Amino acid sequence: MPAASSWMASNLAPSSRRAVGLAMMIALGNIGGVMGSYMFFDSDAPKYNTGFGLSLAFAVGGIASAIAVELAFKFGNAQKAKINEDAVRAMYNDDELLLLGDRSPLFKCEL
């Protein structure tokens, strides 16, 4: 969780989006514990096929999501690398770039 929180914080800007994003991530992470307690049915004992099947499905879904996000960040960073920084700075001043946050043409996502 600390690694995911720091990764999330470095890829969201400005601070208002960062605060909301971190709060949502922590809330959804805590919901996982509640869901986990209702996935393992007593009637499935001792193998718990439903619980372990759902756990495997969530793990595979998480891995697929992580790969998709990394590919999207690499693609986005490659597109932003083609942008001329001098042209962007001619269009925007430093305060405007700061207000754009992660929508700024100069913002690069951390991988």
Q: If you had to describe this structure to a student in words, what would you say it looks like?
A:
By secondary structure, this protein is mainly α. The chain has one domain (2-103). The chain is built from five helices and no strands. α1 (2-10) runs antiparallel to α2. The longest helix is centred in the middle third of the chain and has 33 residues, at 49-81. The protein is elongated. The model has no long low-confidence stretch (mean pLDDT 91).
% residues in beta strands? under 5%
Total helical segments = 5
Task: Tell how many strands the DSSP assignment holds.
Answer: 0
Number of domains: 1
Largest sheet: none
Distance between the termini: 16 Å
Low-confidence stretches: none
Mean pLDDT over all positions: 91
SSE pattern: HHHHH
Which bin fits the share of residues in helices?
Answer: over 70%
Classification by helices and strands: mainly alpha
Large-scale geometry: elongated
Any idea what the radius of gyration is? 20 Å
Topology of this structure?
Blueprint: H1 2-10, H2 15-37, H3 49-81, H4 85-91, H5 94-100
Helix pairs in contact: 1-2
Question: How would you concisely characterize the structure shown here?
Answer:
The chain has helices at residues 2-10, 15-37, 49-81, 85-91, 94-100. By secondary structure, the chain is mainly alpha-helical.
Offer a few descriptive terms.
5 helices; mainly alpha; 71% helix; 111 residues; 0% strand
